[in-house]
Design brief:
469 residues, alpha/beta, eight-stranded parallel β-sheet, 17 helices, elongated
Length: 469
């Protein structure tokens, strides 16, 4: 079969970069190509109906790829020309990745084997409305069970009522308490798990028809929980074992060794890990910690974790672990590295950076014939250019001042827009992120999409339906 012949549609400014990318890409991906340069400088301003009027498709073309920002319906172009039209990536530098995914569907990443218990701390001190709000937030983030954390030394009079009402909202519940009165009330109301069980409460807890989390009486000695296990087994009670994950500086490495030993000693037992002792008590962004905990749990077949979101740096810990457990499940099940799978947990920096380089920027600046500003951030500098000049440097204030001295006064709207974009560009340089003008910075699963200046212009000015040439 002859190679597929693809037509790439672009504007005048992007043509050189597009051709530079396509030459090696076509060889690697096994297609032939042609480039149609339409009479518009900025390809992102194209719309489907305008493309229909301006484009001539050569014979032998199998499909047409238009810029990712192109507005309108691709179906109308497909119907008009009789061949498939599709949007490419918004950033033409993503074309290799766009074609690299062809024939290799991205994994769904919806399978997992680790249950998340998300703890509401000091539950007895909260109103039911607040309990419900936090429970809903945890469930939306991926929690499977809501754990009601009680206050040591106090008895929660409303334990049964709160459990009952939350169960009516569809929640699975556990209670974290050693107080017999509130535990018995919660279990009678429908709590399915009690945290925790050891020598101090095993006699009465073994009489309740509920699953328990068994702790060693002495954290450094796993044999100390044998009597508790035996008692629960004699009473036909379910339980899961928690060797206790210690905070860093207080026996962290030794506690990891205990989890490994517990799995070796009890190959078929259910294990649980309280990962909040790391995410809450370690002053570092929590996503990486959650991922490593998920990896340990997946490989040791630890099927449940307890976490929470009290400290601000761990405010999205449940969602982080939800994504992490799916990544590690895919990695372990398929024996592949956990990378190139969407980067939802790459939040501070970006998976990769693309640069035009000094020559590319100067060539682009030399081709500009309109007053619109193009902004780039690379190699430690902010770059601004339009038909009046090209300004760059590492201080956005200084670059802006030099630019303003050349182009003259700006409107309030224009100055605000440049300020917003320069702020994003400076942030991208500081953190090592990819800056793309008019697009939100990428923050993994925390990314908040923004309406670009181009989209705002389309909404405000319908005359863009027919772009000027």
């Amino acid at each position: 079969m002859p190679p597929e012949r693809i037509l790439f549609v672009t504007g005048r400014l992007a043509e050189p970069s597009l051709r530079e990318i396509l030459a090696p890409l076509a060889v690697r991906a096994g297609f032939e190509y042609e480039v149609a340069v339409l009479g518009i400088s900025v390809a992102a301003l194209m719309r489907a109906d305008w493309v229909r009027r301006k484009l001539t498709v050569p014979s032998g073309i199998a499909r047409v790829i238009v810029p990712g920002w192109c507005g309108g319906e691709m179906e109308s172009l497909t119907a008009h020309f009789g061949i498939p039209f599709e949007r490419g990536p918004k950033d033409l530098f993503d074309l290799p990745e766009h074609f690299g995914r062809g024939g290799r569907p991205k994994p769904a990443l919806d399978e997992y084997s680790i249950e998340i218990l998300a703890e509401i701390n000091h539950a007895p001190t909260l109103s039911f409305d607040e309990l419900l709000r936090q429970a809903n937030s945890y469930r939306d983030s991926g929690a499977d069970v809501i754990d009601l954390g009680c206050v040591p030394g106090e008895t929660w009079a409303d334990a049964a009522d709160s459990v009952r009402r939350l169960k009516c909202e569809g929640f699975r519940l556990s209670i974290d308490s050693f107080d017999r009165v509130e535990v018995e009330a919660a279990v009678e109301a429908g709590a399915e798990l009690v945290l925790s069980c050891n020598v101090t409460n095993r006699e009465w807890l073994s009489q309740l028809n509920v699953e328990s989390v068994v702790l060693p009486d002495e954290p450094s000695d796993l044999a100390s929980w044998n009597a508790t296990q035996s008692l629960l087994t004699e009473n036909n009670r379910k339980y899961r074992l928690d060797p206790i994950l210690e905070p860093i500086g207080f026996g962290f490495a030794a506690s990891l060794a205990r989890y490994y030993a517990a799995r070796q000693q009890h190959p078929h037992a259910e294990l649980m890990m309280g990962i909040g002792n790391l995410t809450e008590l370690t002053e570092v962004d929590s996503a990486g910690i959650n991922f490593l905990c998920a990896a340990i749990c997946e490989e040791l077949q630890i099927r449940s974790v307890l976490t929470t979101e009290v400290i601000n740096w761990g405010r999205t810990a449940v969602r982080e672990f939800d994504l992490a457990r799916k990544l590690v499940r895919h990695s372990v099940a398929n024996h592949v590295l956990p990378k190139h799978l969407g980067g939802q947990l790459v939040m501070l920096r970006d998976p990769k950076l693309r640069q035009l380089g000094d020559d590319g920027l100067r060539q682009l600046a030399g081709r500009l014939t309109d007053p619109n500003f193009r902004i780039f951030a690379e190699r430690g500098e902010i770059h601004i250019m339009n038909r009046d000049g090209y300004w760059h440097g590492d201080d956005p204030y200084e670059v802006f001042d030099r630019m303003a001295a050349t182009v003259g006064p700006l409107t309030a709207d224009h100055a605000f827009y440049l300020g917003m974009e320069l702020c994003k560009a400076r942030t991208a340089l500081t953190l090592g992120k990819q800056y793309i003008q008019d697009e939100a910075l990428r923050w993994g699963f925390l990314t908040v999409d923004e309406v670009s200046a181009i989209q705002r212009r389309r909404h405000a000015d319908r005359s863009l339906e027919t772009p000027s040439e």
